[in-house]
Amino acid sequence: MNLLPLAREPSVLDRAWMAIQYPWDLVRNPLQALLSVPALSFLVIPAFSSYGTTLNLLFFTMTWAVLIRTNNPLHVEILGTFGIRLLFYILPSLGFLFFDSATPALAVGIKEHGDTALPMSEENGGKKGRWWKVAIVSIGNVLLGVAIQTGIELLFTQVLHLQSVLKLSTGLPMPWGIAKDLFLGLLLREVMTYVFHRYGLHSEQSPLTKVHANWQHTIPAPFSLVAHYDHPSAYLTHVFLPTYLPAVIFRFHLLTYLLYLAVVSLEETFAYSGYNMLPSAFVLGGIARRQEKHLMGGGKGNYGCFGFVDFAMGTSIGEDLMDDVIDEAEEKQVAKKTKGKAKAAGKKVMKKAPKKRSNDEDLEEEKEEEEEGEKRGAAEEETDEEEAPPKPKRNGSSPNKSGERGAEALEEDADGQSPEQKKETPPKRPSRTRRSEKKSSEEDAEAGGQDEEIKAEEGKPRPKAKGITRKGSQKSKAGGRPRKRSEEDDE
């Protein structure tokens, strides 16, 4: 007797549940792989480790091989494509849209066309306008492109049993191969965009001309998410096919394709943002100006992305690619010259400009000067007292001699110098704080000496000796105020 349980076929409910769960499994398994330790090492180890370049490249190769072998390569391709579009186009464009809507007064200052480029402006229908329609259609077209890419891969691998459209191998592309594929892919995308856009969407014989004019060309000025806003058929013609076909023709490696798609997504995000402040004034600035003139000029030129084919075919509107190159070179030269002149002028000004002082420092210096002046004045007074000779007292001295000695003492200054010594040695400059006091004391001493001399002369008769009279008169002239000689003095 066989005791093993027999395998039964799944019921209708089981099949229905598996069908419902299949899309979730399709998304969940690659996400688990991306969030696993090998995927984290793919991102974290090369950035934050102290290993050399060779060891980091080895870790990168091992991580990529583990990611491809443990998951369905188709899941990795589709989720990688959607992740690149989400990180480099959808989220930045939604951030720009939120910034323009939440702070319109601030956003107007950095918009190239002012209020017209705001998503909620009067030209766009206000707050209840079509900005929400632009956002929904743009994100829907991105998802439509990812779905078509998934269908093409399933057609090649599951139906036709051919190799995948993109190269899904465990090996890594070489740096030279990545650079070559990026250059060829972007160049072919420029040519395809020009051809499909001019002859497929702006030709009188094309049925998509009216559709394209009634959708994208109704926007008065570009703002975020307008790059993918168009009728689905027109979007697939001039956005999806020129982006995807070069990768199919040259059969890019998946890593090369993801890098190529990131460059394209960033270009579309900034070129249609409507801002006049962009990371690169030459590349992104020129692309943005050409796209704005094409959108606002009725589609009469500027059909390509970078402007190479428009310049060659003579369909450029306004400034062409060569004008952008010349303007950028002139701006860089002017910026270098102005920076050099500004630095030189700044150095000269810093050398010539005096050091700034605060009021507190000035007050402190004034106080220090006053204190030093007082100390010097006190020291000079002490030295005067020490050096001054004592006055001799003699009995029987004549009043004329005492007056002469008083005048001689008064003639001596604060330094204890006689008039003869003054002539030989220059006078010392008194301090600032003691100038007024010394002047007043000298004037008082002179006036006092003169009064005493006059009283002594009036009280007692003057001797007639000419020598004494001349000597006293000479000293009185040197010490006190000068007075006129009278006839009595001569006698």
Task: Describe the 3D structure.
- The chain is an all-alpha fold.
- It is 67% helix and 0% strand.
- Helix 4 runs antiparallel to helix 6 (131-159).
- The longest helix has 32 residues, at 321-352.
- The radius of gyration is 51 Å and the shape is elongated.
- The model is unreliable at 1-6, 36-43, 392-415, 428-434 and 464-482 (pLDDT under 50).
Give a short overview.
The chain is mainly α.
- The counted number of beta strands is 0
Mean pLDDT: 74
Overall shape: it is: elongated
Summarize the main sheet: none
- Provide the gyration radius in Å: 51 Å
Strand content: under 5%
Derived structural class: mainly alpha
Task: Determine the fraction of residues in helical runs and give it as a percent range.
Answer: 55-70%
Q: Number of DSSP helices?
A: 19
First-last Cα distance: 178 Å
Low-confidence stretches: 1-6, 36-43, 392-415, 428-434, 464-482
Helix/strand order, N-terminal first: HHHHHHHHHHHHHHHHHHH
Walk me through the topology.
Elements (H helix, E strand, L loop, with lengths): L11 H23 L2 H12 L4 H18 L2 H30 L1 H5 L22 H29 L15 H27 L6 H8 L16 H18 L4 H18 L11 H14 L11 H6 L7 H32 L6 H29 L11 H13 L7 H6 L10 H25 L6 H14 L7 H4 L1
Characteristics:
491 residues, disordered N terminus, mainly alpha
